[in-house]
Specification:
Elements (H helix, E strand, L loop, with lengths): L3 E6 L6 H15 L5 E6 L5 H8 L4 E5 L16 H6 L4 E4 L2 H6 L4 H13 L3 E6 L3 H5 L3 H21 L3 E4 L13 H16 L3 H6 L1 E5 L4 H8 L6 E4 L6 H10 L1
Parallel strand pairs: 1-2, 1-8, 2-3, 3-4, 4-5, 5-6, 6-7, 7-8
Helix pairs in contact: 1-2, 1-11, 5-7, 7-8, 10-11
Bound molecules: phosphoenolpyruvate.
Phosphoenolpyruvate binds next to strand 8.
């Protein structure tokens, strides 16, 4: 039985005072909830704050991106080892905003995945199709390409550390959620794709859904057999809403 995992992606939101209120509220509400795992991916400057607020609680924290390089002359980059210094458990890789706005292609995403996994972090690999790709009937081809690039570069030993987040681009921040059936179909496809390399790994793999998850639709999504929790953007910035989503898991 796979445990559900709910992770908040704060994106570029927050400040010290707001974050403190949110982190304290989450720790108070979720610390005795043992039925699922919870985390938040915060902007880099607030990793220390997340570590201070959440150490000793059942909540984990992580980053929204990671460099593919270990160290060196890469101005502005943050390495996986640096994330480890702040106790991070997760690093998002290949979020659609990174792919679309910062030109991260499959090869770069795969390198970031490898860097994160080698450093002992759990990479949350984001995959998903655009609206045009869905309407063009190539959802599975796109998701397969995004997955295969990482499996090939990382190998199964490192891929075994991963979480996959299926995030249809048309559902992120738009208020349009995939129906539970639409999401389930792609999740099942992802699991079968991974099973072609290893059935055992596929059965263990946590596959989160992301894209306008709210308290009002979380339970139906999480009830689907291959949906193992959620990656939550906007709704993770509101303590009550995020807690309710976590409770649904
Ligand atoms: C995300 O940023 O990964 C996301 C799913 O955002 P939202 O929940 O706001 O659609």
């Amino acid at each position: 039985m796979r445990r559900k995992l709910v992770v908040g992606n704060w994106k570029m939101h927050g400040n010290l005072a707001q974050n403190q209120g949110l982190l304290d509220a989450l720790a108070a509400a979720l610390n005795d909830r043992t039925g699922a795992d919870f985390g938040v991916c915060v902007p880099f400057p607030y990793l220390f704050q997340a570590q201070a607020a959440l150490t000793g609680t059942r909540l984990s924290w992580g980053a929204q991106d990671v460099s593919e390089h270990a160290q060196g002359a890469y101005t502005g980059e943050v390495s996986a080892a640096m994330l480890n210094d702040f106790g991070a458990r997760y690093a998002l890789v290949g979020h659609s905003e990174r792919r679309a706005l910062y030109g991260e292609d499959d090869e770069r995403v795969a390198k970031k995945f490898v860097a994160a996994a080698r450093a002992g972090l759990i990479p949350i690999l984001c995959v998903g199709e655009s609206l045009g790709e869905r309407e063009g009937g190539v959802t599975e081809a796109v998701v397969a390409r995004q997955l295969d690039a990482v499996i090939e570069a990382a190998g199964l030993d490192l891929f075994a550390r991963a979480v996959v987040a299926y995030e249809p681009v048309w559902a992120i921040g738009t208020g349009k959620t995939a129906t539970p059936e639409q999401a389930q179909a792609v999740h099942a496809f992802i699991r079968e794709r991974v099973a072609q390399a290893s059935r055992e790994l596929a059965d263990r793999l946590t596959i989160q859904y992301g894209g306008s998850v709210k308290a009002a639709n979380a339970a139906q999504l999480f009830a689907m057999p291959d949906i193992d929790g959620g990656l939550i953007g906007g709704a993770s910035l509101v303590a009550e809403e995020f807690v309710a989503i976590c409770m649904a898991a």
